[in-house]
Specification:
It is built from nine helices and 18 strands. By secondary structure, the chain is of the alpha+beta class. The longest helix is centred in the first third of the chain and has 25 residues. The relative contact order is 0.09.
Length: 377
C-alpha cells in the first residue's frame, strides 16, 4: 500500500499500510544484481553450475542476511513498527514508559483455634497459598492478635506480580506455609485484585503516539484521557464526561469486572491536582456501564448445519468480544450478519433481539447469551 502525502494518517492506518521496505531480504534480487554486474565485467553469459555462479549465490545469501538485519534496524526506529526494547527507547524520548506489572492485594483474617492468654504474633512475610502458580501471598506487616481475641486482619500482597494473583474470592481458606502455634486458619476477607501483567507493545505504542496530549495542563479532554490510560495497564478504554463546569467524570473499562478498587485509585492518583490536572476541577472515577445483549442469530444454510452454526456463532462472539473492549461502540446487526454470510454454506443470516444502537460514551456491550437457530435453505 502506498501512502498519499496529502493525507494525514493516524497510527492504525500507518500500521495497516505495512512496513516500508528500505532494504531487500530477497536473495534472488541480490543474485540478479551480481549476475548482471559479473556478466558486464567478464563480457560473457553465466550459467547455473559454473564456479562463478556458486560464488555469486554465496554472496547473494550473505547480502540477503545483511539486508534483513539493516531492514530490522531501520524499522525499529519507527514508532508504528517498533517492538520490545526498541519501543521502550522511543517512548523514553517523550517520557512515556512501559507500565510495570503490579501485584494483587487482599486482606487476610487469621483465626485462632481458641483465645490465648498472651499476644499471638504472626510475623510480616508469613506465606499463605490460595492455589495456582500466582496464589502465593505474603503478609505486609506483623499481625498482633491481642490476648482473649480470636482473630485478626492484615493486608497481604501476592509474591509474584501479574494477573495470576487476582480472583481469590472472599471467604476462601488459604493454606498456611508458615504455621504459627495456635493459629487455625487463614481466610480471605476481600477479593484479591490489582494485579496486572506488564504493559504490552500495542497500548504502549498508542500512548507514545498521543504523548503530546500531556503537554497542556489546562484540562483538555484528550489530556485527561491520556492521564487515565497511563494510570494502570489493565485499563482498556476510558470516557471523559464533563456534566458541569469543573466536574470531570472518568468512566473506566477494564478486562476484569467489576472495576477493581486498585485501578480506580490509580486513575485518581494519576489525576493529582498538584501535578496532573487543574486544581479547580473535581475528578470522580466511575466504572463503565455495561449494556447487555441477548440476540438470536437465524441462519439459512446449505450444508452441515452443526458445523456452519458453530462457525457463525464463533464469528458473532468475536464481534461482541471487540465491542466488549471499547466504550461508545456502534452496535449494528450488519457487523454480525455480514461476516456470517461470508461463510461458505450460509445462504442468509438475520439477527433478532436488538437493532442498531450507538452506545453512550460510558457504555460497553456485553453478550450475556447468544441463541443460534438454523434452517435448511
Amino acid at each position: 500500500m502506498s501512502l498519499d502525502p496529502r493525507f494525514v494518517y493516524d497510527l492504525d492506518t500507518l500500521v495497516a499500510a505495512g512496513e516500508p521496505q528500505f532494504f531487500s531480504s530477497d536473495p534472488l534480487y541480490y543474485k540478479g544484481l551480481l549476475v548482471s554486474k559479473a556478466e558486464a565485467i567478464m563480457n560473457r553469459t553465466l550459467y547455473e553450475g559454473q564456479v562463478e555462479m556458486y560464488m555469486i549465490e554465496v554472496m547473494a545469501y550473505a547480502l540477503q542476511v545483511r539486508g534483513a538485519e539493516q531492514q530490522l534496524a531501520v524499522i525499529q526506529r519507527l514508532l508504528p513498527f517498533a517492538r520490545g526494547r526498541y519501543l521502550d527507547l522511543l517512548g523514553a524520548r517523550l517520557k512515556t514508559f512501559r507500565l510495570a506489572a503490579s501485584t494483587a492485594r487482599l486482606i487476610l483474617r487469621f483465626t485462632l483455634s481458641a483465645p490465648r492468654p498472651s499476644t499471638t504474633i504472626i510475623p510480616a512475610g508469613s506465606r499463605v497459598r490460595a492455589g495456582g502458580a500466582g496464589g502465593l501471598f505474603l503478609t505486609d506487616g506483623d499481625l498482633l492478635i491481642a490476648p482473649g481475641a480470636l482473630s485478626g486482619d492484615v493486608h497481604a500482597t501476592a509474591a509474584v506480580a501479574g494477573i495470576a494473583g487476582n480472583g481469590v474470592p472472599p471467604g476462601s481458606t488459604l493454606g498456611m506455609l508458615d504455621p504459627v502455634a495456635g493459629v487455625e486458619a487463614a481466610t480471605a476477607v476481600t477479593l484479591s485484585d490489582g494485579g496486572s501483567d506488564q504493559e504490552r507493545d500495542d497500548p504502549l505504542r498508542a500512548r507514545i503516539a498521543e504523548a503530546w496530549e500531556r503537554i497542556s495542563r489546562g484540562g483538555p479532554r484528550a489530556g485527561y484521557r491520556q492521564l487515565a490510560l497511563g494510570a494502570h495497564p489493565d485499563i482498556l478504554d476510558v470516557a471523559i464526561i464533563r456534566p458541569q463546569p469543573c466536574d470531570i467524570d472518568i468512566y473506566v473499562l477494564t478486562e476484569e469486572l467489576p472495576l477493581p478498587a486498585a485501578v480506580s485509585a490509580a486513575v485518581l492518583a494519576a489525576c493529582d491536582p498538584l501535578e496532573g490536572r487543574p486544581e479547580g476541577d473535581e475528578v470522580t472515577v466511575y466504572p463503565a456501564t455495561a449494556v447487555s445483549f441477548e440476540p438470536t442469530l437465524r441462519l439459512w444454510v446449505d450444508g452441515d448445519s452443526a458445523a456452519l452454526a458453530a462457525q457463525a456463532e464463533a464469528t458473532a462472539r468475536g464481534v461482541f468480544a471487540a465491542w466488549r473492549r471499547m466504550l461508545g461502540a456502534r452496535v449494528s446487526t450488519a457487523a454480525v450478519t455480514s461476516p456470517a454470510k461470508q461463510i461458505a454454506g450460509i445462504v442468509e443470516a438475520e439477527i433478532d433481539g436488538y437493532s442498531y444502537s450507538a452506545l453512550g460514551e460510558d457504555e460497553f456491550a456485553v453478550l450475556t447469551s447468544l441463541t443460534v437457530v438454523v434452517e435448511e435453505a
